[in-house]
Amino acid sequence: MRDMEWFQKIPAELFYVILAAVGGTARYLQAYLNEGKFAIKHFCAHIVISAFSGYMFYQFAFNFLSLPETVIPVVAGLGGWMGVESMKMLEDWWRKKINK
Questions:
Q1: Run of H or E residues at 22
Q2: Contact status, residue 58 vs residue 13, Cβ threshold 8 Å
Q3: Are 29 and 42 a contacting pair, CB within 8 Å?
Q4: Residue 63, class by beta-carbon neighbours within 10 Å (0-12 exposed, 13-18 middle, 19+ buried)?
Q5: pLDDT per position in the chain (100 positions), as tens?
Q6: Quick check: pTM over 0.85?
Q7: Residue 80: which of 29, 38, 40, 33 has the closest Cα?
Q8: Domain extents for the chain?
C-alpha cells in the first residue's frame, strides 16, 4: 500500500490534466494510424489543447453539473479526446445560458 502513497499526494487537477492529455494523444495517434502523417509540432500543440480542454471539461463537470466523482475522469478524458470541439460545446452551452 505504501507504493501508492505518492499517488494520493498528486492534486486532482493535475491528474485530470494528464488524463486529458492522454486522451488527446490517443486521438492524435489514431489519426496518425489512419492517415500516416506525423508532425512533432502538431502533436505537441494537440497535447496542449487537449490538456486545456480536458481540464475545462473537468471543471464544468465538477462545478456546474455536479457529476459523481466516478464519472468525472471520463468527462475529462473525453474533453481531451475532443480537444477544440469540446471547447466549442462549452462555448455554445455558455452562450445559450447567458442569452436566456
A1: helix 12-35
A2: yes
A3: no
A4: exposed
A5: 456 665 666 688 888 899 999 999 999 999 899 998 889 999 999 899 999 998 888 888 888 888 888 898 888 888 889 888 878 887 888 898 888 7
A6: no
A7: 29
A8: 11-99
